[in-house]
């Protein structure tokens, strides 16, 4: 199945990034961290999908959505299906740090263990699986240099 997804690099006032800790429903030992976001619905813009997904997954509705940072294509197996996904990553800012995952979909409730704010240093030191795979370095560059003038193409990855 191929789908379009809008994702958000959501930063709080301390420049911590919010990540979700996901796992394969059939094998909870297969885990990874990822940014908020998800599939774009019919007749929905990428920006609308990004805001909706953040609200559903985190309870945060006051996101200041910024520019498009990165684009990537990925392929992965999840919940018994093979996926091909085109992803657009937006910069998002919020002053809200308290999280409310009660709006998550049934599948998200079956496959998301926790939500956590990470400092860039914690992410750089982590040995856990994080998607996109270069997120720690990309975040460091974003925090040091600001958003890119045009979206960075991350290429194709197999997650």
In short:
The protein is an alpha/beta fold. It has helices at residues 46-58, 106-111, 120-125, 135-145; strands at 2-11, 17-24, 27-34, 37-39, 64-78, 81-93, 112-118, 130-131, 152-158.
Fold and architecture overview:
- It contains four helices and nine strands.
- The chain is α/β, with parallel strands linked by helices and 159 residues long.
- The strands form two sheets. It has a five-stranded mixed sheet, with helices on one face. It has a four-stranded mixed sheet with strand order 7-2-3-8.
- The longest helix is centred in the N-terminal third of the chain and has 13 residues.
- The chain is globular.
**SS elements, strand count:** 9
* Residues in helices, as a percent range: 10-25%
- Secondary-structure element pattern, one letter each: EEEEHEEHEHEHE
Shape: globular
Could you report the average pLDDT, rounded to the nearest whole number? 96
Radius of gyration computed on alpha carbons: 15 Å
Count of discrete alpha- or pi-helical segments spanning 4 or more residues: 4
Q: Order of strands side by side in the largest beta sheet?
A: 4-1-6-5-9
Model regions low in confidence, pLDDT < 50 over at least 5 residues: none
Straight-line distance between termini: 15 Å
Output the structural class: alpha/beta
Strand content: over 45%
Largest sheet report: 5 strands, mixed
List the helices and strands and how they pair.
Blueprint: E1 2-11, E2 17-24, E3 27-34, E4 37-39, H1 46-58, E5 64-78, E6 81-93, H2 106-111, E7 112-118, H3 120-125, E8 130-131, H4 135-145, E9 152-158
